[in-house]
């Protein structure tokens, strides 16, 4: 097989752009992002926090998004409480060993989630067992649930208060949009809560 050429690179970029273009043409999708951002702003104003979970690349996305809230995004401002439930190896291995991998995020939500918090579950398939368990635990705790998944939505679609189903079946394309959504939510919250700190 020949090595990928410039056409391959261009086609990859075009594939990514095409998914985002489909979203831009779907007002229901962008309106849902708006509503999620507005709710997150309200919850932060009320003293709540964001908890995020995912597996593999989605675990990396959880950590990336949490970092944007805690550190900064577009400009300097106070940190916002956000926890990636994917980072503490002692917790992950203890829960995995004692209760099973599908309980990884449920157990943390039971321990750290309080009513009014927001849990963001990320799964490209929408069927990751530990995310589904976490969504159920969140509902039991009064934690609002956001989901980001692929075009089918999987089982997550019915378990989330808000579920963004990226219109693609290709994992890389789905993940590219997930991080765009995370960035957009963070930018909305940052601007709403700290507009006075934005550089002029």
From TrEMBL:
<feature type="binding site">
    <location>
        <position position="68"/>
    </location>
    <ligand>
        <name>substrate</name>
    </ligand>
</feature>
<dbReference type="InterPro" id="IPR004515">
    <property type="entry name" value="Phosphoheptose_Isoase"/>
</dbReference>
<keyword id="KW-0119">Carbohydrate metabolism</keyword>
<feature type="binding site">
    <location>
        <position position="175"/>
    </location>
    <ligand>
        <name>Zn(2+)</name>
    </ligand>
</feature>
<protein>
    <recommendedName>
        <fullName>Phosphoheptose isomerase</fullName>
        <ecNumber>5.3.1.28</ecNumber>
    </recommendedName>
</protein>
<dbReference type="InterPro" id="IPR035461">
    <property type="entry name" value="GmhA/DiaA"/>
</dbReference>
<comment type="similarity">
    <text>Belongs to the SIS family. GmhA subfamily.</text>
</comment>
<feature type="binding site">
    <location>
        <position position="64"/>
    </location>
    <ligand>
        <name>Zn(2+)</name>
    </ligand>
</feature>
<feature type="binding site">
    <location>
        <begin position="55"/>
        <end position="57"/>
    </location>
    <ligand>
        <name>substrate</name>
    </ligand>
</feature>
<feature type="binding site">
    <location>
        <position position="128"/>
    </location>
    <ligand>
        <name>substrate</name>
    </ligand>
</feature>
<dbReference type="Pfam" id="PF13580">
    <property type="entry name" value="SIS_2"/>
</dbReference>
<keyword id="KW-0963">Cytoplasm</keyword>
<comment type="subunit">
    <text>Homotetramer.</text>
</comment>
<dbReference type="GO" id="GO:0016853">
    <property type="term" value="F:isomerase activity"/>
</dbReference>
<dbReference type="InterPro" id="IPR050099">
    <property type="entry name" value="SIS_GmhA/DiaA_subfam"/>
</dbReference>
<feature type="domain" description="SIS">
    <location>
        <begin position="40"/>
        <end position="199"/>
    </location>
</feature>
<dbReference type="InterPro" id="IPR046348">
    <property type="entry name" value="SIS_dom_sf"/>
</dbReference>
<comment type="function">
    <text>Catalyzes the isomerization of sedoheptulose 7-phosphate in D-glycero-D-manno-heptose 7-phosphate.</text>
</comment>
<keyword id="KW-0413">Isomerase</keyword>
<feature type="binding site">
    <location>
        <position position="183"/>
    </location>
    <ligand>
        <name>Zn(2+)</name>
    </ligand>
</feature>
<feature type="binding site">
    <location>
        <begin position="97"/>
        <end position="98"/>
    </location>
    <ligand>
        <name>substrate</name>
    </ligand>
</feature>
<comment type="pathway">
    <text>Carbohydrate biosynthesis; D-glycero-D-manno-heptose 7-phosphate biosynthesis; D-glycero-alpha-D-manno-heptose 7-phosphate and D-glycero-beta-D-manno-heptose 7-phosphate from sedoheptulose 7-phosphate: step 1/1.</text>
</comment>
<feature type="binding site">
    <location>
        <position position="68"/>
    </location>
    <ligand>
        <name>Zn(2+)</name>
    </ligand>
</feature>
<feature type="binding site">
    <location>
        <begin position="123"/>
        <end position="125"/>
    </location>
    <ligand>
        <name>substrate</name>
    </ligand>
</feature>
<feature type="binding site">
    <location>
        <position position="175"/>
    </location>
    <ligand>
        <name>substrate</name>
    </ligand>
</feature>
<keyword id="KW-0479">Metal-binding</keyword>
<keyword id="KW-0862">Zinc</keyword>
<dbReference type="InterPro" id="IPR001347">
    <property type="entry name" value="SIS_dom"/>
</dbReference>
């Amino acid at each position: 097989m020949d090595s990928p050429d410039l056409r391959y690179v261009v086609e990859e970029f075009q594939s990514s752009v095409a998914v985002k273009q489909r979203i831009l043409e779907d007002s229901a999708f962008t309106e849902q992002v708006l509503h999620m951002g507005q709710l997150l702003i309200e919850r932060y104003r009320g003293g709540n926090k964001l908890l995020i979970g995912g597996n593999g690349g989605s675990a990396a996305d959880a950590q990336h998004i949490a970092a944007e809230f805690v550190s900064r995004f577009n400009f300097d401002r106070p940190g916002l409480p956000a926890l990636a439930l994917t980072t503490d190896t002692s917790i992950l291995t203890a829960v995995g060993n004692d209760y099973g991998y599908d309980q990884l995020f449920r157990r943390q939500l039971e321990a750290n989630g309080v009513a009014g918090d927001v849990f963001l579950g990320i799964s490209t398939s929408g069927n990751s067992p530990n995310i589904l368990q976490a969504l159920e635990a969140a509902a039991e705790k009064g934690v609002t649930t956001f989901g980001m998944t692929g075009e089918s939505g999987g089982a997550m679609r019915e378990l989330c208060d808000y579920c963004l189903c990226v219109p693609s079946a290709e994992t890389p394309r789905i993940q590219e949009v997930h991080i765009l959504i995370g960035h957009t939510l963070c930018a909305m919250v940052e601007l709403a809560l700290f507009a006075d700190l934005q550089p002029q």
